[in-house]
Amino acid sequence: MESQRQHKYAKQILKDLAQIFQRNIQDSFHGAFVTLKEVKISPDLSIASIYISVLPISKGEEVMLIIDQNNKRIRGILGKAIGKQARIVPHLRFFLDNTEEEASKMDSLLENLDIPEEDQSED
Fold this sequence. Notes:
Elements: H1 4-25, E1 33-41, E2 47-55, H2 60-69, H3 71-82, E3 91-96, H4 99-111
Parallel strand pairs: 2-3
Antiparallel strand pairs: 1-2
Helix pairs in contact: 1-3
């Protein structure tokens, strides 16, 4: 269960990271559309797990590589943004959130099911 403090801190980090990505990193993604979906914070506020989605889905691995290469830079910019409010800047761990891709696959599977009509005759 996430504490009120964790929730508030996660919301702040999500907001600040969204601005950082938009201002400082977006051009590095070569046309991919990156959305920050959720931030989860460890109880001691030292680790932030950030879940992102990427469109088109095929650019997901490339975007994750770019983010990994820029992780220290992103954390440094975040530190300047939250420095007045936070004692420590959390370590950032980024994860690709493929929920939409999975949902799309499920939709496709369900649409292609061949379910025979139920026999309505009474015995």
